[in-house]
Amino acid sequence: MRRMTWIAAIILSLTLVLSACGTKDAESVVKDLDKFLNSMEGYTGSGTMTLHNGQQPQAYQVEVSYQKPESYRIKLTNVEKDITQIVLRNDEGVFVLTPKQNKVFRFQSDWPQKQGQVYLYQTLVQSILLDGSRQFTTTDEAYVFDVMAQYNNTSLARQKIWLSQDDYHPLQVEVSDTNATVLVDVKFDTFEFNPSFTEDYFATDANMNAGASAPTPESPTDITPKDDQESVAPGDDGVGSEPSAPDQEGVEGNVDEEHDAGAPAEEGNAGEEAENTKGNVENNKEEPTSAVQQSSDTFVAMEPTYTPLGVSLKDMTDIEYAGSPGLLTRYDGLYSYTLIQTSAKDMATALAQGDLVNLGYTIGQLTAGEDVQTLSWTYNGNMYRLSSANLPEPELIKIAQSVQAELSK
């Protein structure tokens, strides 16, 4: 009898030991992640990202690649609309590419060092390491962390991260607001650590040529208003330089003088800024016909599917600048803001310095003056500028994320 008791005790002890060996606690996983992040040479992965903004969720195929020390490639594809954009960081800088439309835009930024991205492995691991109050659970296949979100969009409060128990690669990410409503989720289908990349994998020209519908320039060209006034989209007279303040007589002239990123009108009012723009654009028109109608085959106006409570559409005006069609839309109410969208030229443009913002489907650039802040981004060959004197930054981002529907006028 005593012998049977000893055998049972031994079996129970072995079971507990084996069970403990197969499961790690939060502290062990965190230590492993810290070591692995420092030793990792690179990764590549793919999956589906869904943005839950506006009326309908927007799904995108995402491919992400990284190579030490600072090479990144993010490919975002809207399958339904057949739109692909590539965000690159290489030795030459940070670029947003639309190969099919032969568009390249250069950003002056240290992205993504200060702006985390939900699909970047470093961002996910760092959020786990930095949150001392992290919550930890396990499933049959994953270690699950619930931590504070580390993004410059303050509406993104927390995120839940699923990491494979095999090698800590990401399986899924859910980012939610303060009400626990999921705003962004990413599900990875594949993920590989330390892959081998071709020599030109992160090169701008190679990525443009791989998906371009027309020949591309030998190298991206930075354009400033002094170099080529005809090549600058509305609002970009600060391109490649620090924003300049308006003169004492007030802002006069064309669209890009009045909507320079971070350079507000004298009163700092986005509505008055738009009124001046509207008049100046109309004065520059040679014909009264709509600029959008003139180039309907190359420019498709979009509209946001999200509008803050207490805000309504005030008016919209077809514009044309430097031969490019566009649309100016104003909103008024609790908040006042202006959305300018225009067709961009087929060349690279160096944008003014600012903070890069993750819009999900692309990367935006946030610049702030004394009174007006402006969020600029490019998508499907068009340039967008959302400006306001009183719109909170989370609302500014949410509106920009919802500019996905074709305008019905």
Quick description:
The chain is an alpha+beta fold and 409 residues long. The protein is built from eight helices and 21 strands.
- The CATH homologous superfamily of the largest domain is named MucB/RseB, C-terminal domain
Shape: globular
First-last Cα distance: 89 Å
Strand residues, percent: 35-45%
Structure commentary:
The chain has eight helices and 21 strands. Helix 2 crosses helix 3. The protein has a twelve-stranded mixed β-sheet, with helices on both faces. The chain has a seven-stranded antiparallel β-sheet with strand order 13-14-15-20-19-18-17, with helices on both faces. Residues 14-20 and 213-297 have low confidence and may be disordered. The chain is globular. 21% of the residues lie in helices and 35% in strands. The protein is of the alpha+beta class. Residues 208-296 are annotated as: Disordered. It comes from Paenibacillus montaniterrae. Residues 1-20 form the signal peptide.
